[in-house]
Structure formats: C-alpha cells, structure tokens
Amino acid sequence: MSVAQKVQQHPVFVQAQNKANFYLAQLDKELTKYPVLNNFEQRTQVPKTYAVIGAFVLLSVLHLVNPLAAVVSNLVGWALPAYLSFKAIESPSPHDDIQWLTYWVVFGFFNFLESFALRVVLYYLPWYFSFKTLFIVWLQLPAFRGAQTIYLTVLKPVLQNISSQSRTVAHTTNNSTSTAEPVGAHSE
C-alpha cells in the first residue's frame, strides 16, 4: 500500500473530505438559486461551485497585487449589484427593489466617507481593500442583510435627526416671517 493510499484511508483525512464535500454540496444548493450560475454551468460544464470558489481565489490573489486592490474592490461593489439591481427593476416584486436601493444608499455613503479618509486609512491599514471587499460582500448577501443593518442602525437615525432639525429650522423660520409685518405696510 502506497503512502498516498494510506493517507486517503486515514480517518482524519476521510472526515475532512466528508466535511468538505458537505460544504461543497451546501454551497452548490445555495448557488442553484441564481440562474446566471446555472446557465454558466450548463454552457461551460464547469461546476458552479468550483467557478465561484475559483473567482473568490482569483479576487483574493488580485488583492495581493496592491495597485489592483482598489479596482477589484470597487468592481466587487459595483458589478454584481448593478446586474441584480437591473433584474430587480425588471421584476414585479418590490422586495428586491428595497434590498438593492438600500445597498446603493449604504454603498454610496461608505464611498463618500472613504473619500475623506482613504490616505490615512491606507497608511495604518495596508490590507484595507481586502477588508473593504469583505464588507461589501457582507452588504450584498441577502443571507446577512448587511446593507439593511447599516441603514437601520447608522444611516436612518442620522438622516432622521437631520430631517427633524431641518423641519425645526423651517418651522421656526416660517413662524418668524408670518408674525412679521408685511413688506410695505406701515404702522401708525
């Protein structure tokens, strides 16, 4: 019996192989929900699970090449959400519209904040774009509802506070102008 055969029959190897097969089957089951991946698998004869894992590995390797990290991160934040937003607009259900509209609000706000602090963040955190990409994926995935979480816990309270302050200022301004004497009127 060769060394390779002994390793393949070792209980730890068999257990690891069974666990990996279980997770691959779970991923395949989850990916079956996406018609694009099913079509890709039919056309190329490459299992969608391997294609997604390969794309993930490729993106990870591209993050190692620092000049490409920002481009790859922004591509991850734009490409799939843009396609799924298009599909959401064309679908009759409003639920996917809400998810992607929320995603774009959070993504835009995040990019706005990032524009102010990017140099400082990159100085202290050289792997920033890897973390940003993971954050963007977390925002996108319906299983996590990351965009909705950020919107409800951060953006909505801030925007409601700004809105209520602007209403208070507008109300105060309207009251002060309505109690003032009309232009051209003279009091005698």
UniProtKB/TrEMBL annotation:
UniProt entry keywords in alphabetical sequence: Membrane, Transmembrane, Transmembrane helix
Keyword Membrane set for record: yes
GO CC terms: membrane
Residues that span the membrane, as ranges: 50-80, 100-125
Annotated compartments: Membrane
Record membrane topology: Multi-pass membrane protein
InterPro entries tied to this protein: TB2_DP1_HVA22
Record flagged with keyword Acetylation: no
Membership in a protein family: Belongs to the DP1 family.
The protein, known as: Protein YOP1
Protein's organism: Asterophora parasitica
